[in-house]
């Protein structure tokens, strides 16, 4: 944005202010009245210090606003929202209700009825149209409002400081004076005056047009552009040059910081632009500019705009794929209705005599009404609303209704590990310091409480490697009778329990790096009497471990440690660094700055030139690297996430050297000049851009490895059953994690993604079951496609790997759900068929996703899929129910064209209002009830549905024809029996318009047919509770002798809808005037028996067709394809039973030795494997899952 534009925006803002002071703005109270307040800034905040801004807003930089202040400010200011109009336009919804095929047919029928002066019929149709439009409008408007409310649950949030505590609140609740925390990936909630910035870069392209992220500063010295003069007034500097201001809606691309909220809502810079901007984006080719596109363009542009408008009004270009598909179906049926009307006129030879025209039109109206399922759209909308509400209660926020339909077709889930499959509550279990010191945390009950549990120290002694049973057991299955392992000599055990850890210099150096290279906070909240933590779980675990030795970050900084710079964690290089100046009483020299680095072991190890600290410090060699990797694999095989902790001494003070001095590479020095570092950081250094990577590479080299931290994140208890449920449903689960392959493999085994005995997999599948992202990324598409199975676990996963996995799955015809939480995950979430963001993730990730999990749990994904399948099944059921009745009615009326009265006109077996009553009042409520059906017992034992076919599967289409033909045939038969079998085929005259004695047989036959058709449609709703199971035993697992009534009553809405609809037949048949004048039928007697008999035959026919489908497996859904391993299932013994005496003696001897060893050393403390402690598995399963088993110390 140019300076002139910035100045113009500034002047626009100045005009909106009151004239009393230059820096006052208008504030809108909830009532809408305008009052003069509030922003008592002597100058614009970018010209003021943070302290002056805080004073003007009566806030505290260290504690934030108080609760009382927040309440007062909420009453004083409007919500922090852009008032640019609602997201729901009522007139658009109303037009959609009017301009849909169902209502258009009714409108045509109404117009024709009034045209032939049938005012009763036309009046009833008018009432039905108004009622249908009103109900549909109300339901869809309510649904849109509910969706807006649900979207607000996943809208950007802000972390603020109030009453000295951090809180996460919706952006709308932010008020001026709030202290806001910013980190990479956050959306800035309001205009902020930045007062703390650590490599803070914001993307302001949407506001200023600046393509590169802007480096934020905290200083007040803003220069007038193009001069060396400091700005003193607001108009001298445009918004793009106010680099100590972070603007609302911009995105933090890297770094972190804090700021004071100075303007909110429509008073922000973006709010001002949003209020002034009304330009809408049009589709390509819609321009009418003939000068730019030629003389034909105005005509083409106008016609395309009209076309878009028509499609929008008709619902063919908006809504979910299913809604558009059903809208198209509706218009196809509308066309069929017109065609059937032509058929009616053709049956009467297109004779439009004045005395017969009304009769012919009336019959055409009947057919038009019969073919249209008038309540279909309303039922679909309500079903989706119910599904969204149910999923919200299950911690799943649906941001896009299309995701509801897509969930039922998911074939693969690509899930993160931390916080999704696991608890996300990490604890440092082990810390290994070179070369043989191990610190182990025992009895830690809470991941945030450093005072619970104890830390012991041990020195490693001679190790006796365990045999790899998986490898031995996979040798073509030839040898499973494995001899027992050699008994470990007793002298390797120390009879004394492990001593408590004592502080040493190497341990202190390790803790310095773990605590200072860390963004988490750990503090004790005295009023609540508990420990409070903020930050990422991994960093919290390290910070808590440091607090166990009273060496937390805040305590160290209070001792004089001064942070100079920070290189935030970068997922592409998997490390983070900070630079500190040490106090005089620390281990490190004060004349040099200290670089602390932590990250993935492989990445850190490649940067290390030394290992250890103090007297144990050694040059790094290949042998020592191998030793470190062995220790890392040992920790990782126990399911622990392993981080490397390192440091280096900078050559002098980081900020002391002149700025323009050039870095020279030297073998004698492993440190670059700090001046160049500072220069590059000020020019956009950090972890983005070429110069940023250059300076980071200079800083993060020549490191010294201080040790490894083994961090354990226990799997959630519900994860394994959920994975088993997904596997039974034909869904394969993949783990895409940033952890080490061994850690990922151990956790994958524990939750059931991988078998504990890899030998049950084929050699090819087992080879690629676990892969590093680097190996996977190197493979070509042809190589990936040639794999028998795609990897189940990808470790050290980068964002680009997720996108490559999506492409690989898509080439195999898979339909995948992808989880993510970071900014870099946004592309993969957007590309996936169903992007699922974590509620605790970044706002960018949430914006790119279709679903947000508020609890971050994997079982919520499976619950969402279950609800998606339930909704899909229910839509199939009520579509089958509605369309079956339409098919039956159309067959009945088409056949009725052969019934002629004395004047040669066709006599309809059911009148138009009878059809309308059945479609609207009778069958609609059972359809609503079918939409509320609970999930079938086997819904998660079926494979994913075919998304291309959608709800219109072969079974639904054939069932619709079979049941519709059966319904039409039986109702036609009953009408024919009464008319020809009892009344000799005398159809009277003008029986379609009025009642007379000669028309009594026709009216009685109509009444019987009406009752029969109504009952058939109602009972078919009960039958369609299952498309294959008998209505008399819907649940195959039910052992009751006659569970019919229990099964039917399980859906009370459907039950009473059917009962009430069946009972409504009697008053409609018997009430005088209504029966003759409106419905064109009369009271009946013995005909009730015929109606009941044919209804029973209809139920018998449905049951017979279901039996045929079950008996000969017709139209059956394909079975779930079972592979070599069923994910999530509890594995039995991995070894077959060996019926040999030697084998029995060997296994018995193992048992005797184990029992003897337990009796021999009862007091020796046992450190149980983390898997068995947290997941409830026994020691044997923990040993099989981790590869290391329990350790006796």
From TrEMBL:
Provide a Gene Ontology MF annotation, just one: ATP binding
Q: List, alphabetically, the InterPro entries matched.
A: ATPase_P-typ_cation-transptr_C (IPR006068), ATPase_P-typ_cation-transptr_N (IPR004014), ATPase_P-typ_cyto_dom_N (IPR023299), ATPase_P-typ_P_site (IPR018303), ATPase_P-typ_TM_dom_sf (IPR023298), ATPase_P-typ_transduc_dom_A_sf (IPR008250), ATPase_P-type_domA (IPR059000), HAD-like_sf (IPR036412)
Kindly list the biological process annotations in GO that this record carries.
potassium ion transport
Q: Where is the Cation-transporting P-type ATPase N-terminal domain?
A: 44-118
Biased amino acid composition, Polar residues? 17-32
* Protein topology in the membrane: Multi-pass membrane protein
Question: In its UniProt entry, what is this protein called?
Answer: P-type Na(+) transporter
Q: Which organism is it from?
A: Favolaschia claudopus
Q: What is the lineage of its organism?
A: Eukaryota, Fungi, Dikarya, Basidiomycota, Agaricomycotina
